[in-house]
Predict the structure.
Amino acid sequence: MAGPTTRVLALLELLQARGQLSGAEIAERLGVDRRTARRYISVLEDLGIPVTTEQGRYGGYKLVPGFKLPPLMFTEAEVRVITLALLAVREHNLLEGEVALASVQAKLERVMPAHLKAQVKAMDETIQLIPSRRSSIHQQLLQLTQATQACQVVSMVYRSPKGDTMQRRFDPYGLVFWSGNWYVGGFCHLRQALRSFRLDRLSDITRGDERFVRPANFDAARHLQESMYNAERCFPVSVLLHADMNSVTTYMSTATTCKSDMDGMFEQQEDGVLLTTSTDDYYWFAWWLAQLPFGFVIQSPDELKAALNEHIQRLLSAV
């Protein structure tokens, strides 16, 4: 059933489309009595909409001649922002279906002048974003954003990279989209510490009645990046970088916004800087090493050496 606000907006649309309507016609079309119809007219007047009243047998309500709500206007920069945002929503499966997306696009096209419509069409037909291959995380995103806003403790099931599952109680402080994935950061009751979880590894999320107080200075993005650098992963690696400590730390500081705790990863030696860390994916780490602006030698493990050799052979085959 439509609420009062919806009916007031519908009344405005009727007056703009029909010109003049009697109280009885308004009441019939909106499914209310005449007293309620008059109250809706008063609401429009309070909002500054110029409604005039004509008495008599053929009287009724109408808008002041010439009055029209101003059209929704966009600058070219705003059109680019909206178009790219809609592309991102579609390509990253942020909605369960495309009905809402198509509706938004249709509404925007109705109010845009011709030259902006052409620009939107050109962007839509020529720009592509690589879509996520993972399943949609729409429900996880919806539940966690609502829980974060309401400061509600959630129960959820977490699946580790190894496939193990575990029930968690969690205070969600904030969400971050990073490197193609959504993450939620907050307080894990099981570990009694701050943690970040990838949304596509979460399921059965339910919001409870218990509330929490979000730390005033918590930065979800910074916490996630620090977690990425400090996390204990499956496979330890050791690489000697042919560079001095200043060059390494300068490069790492400009390559990421996370600058803390890097001293534990790098150690100055006579013939270079030793990088000691861990990874969950040898092939990804080999790719990362190949991007470095200085030379290096892999000390361990052999699996990382094999992954790098495969990466090199793949590059050579393309030449």
Summary: DSSP finds eleven helices and twelve strands in the chain. Confidence is low (pLDDT under 50) at residues 257-261.
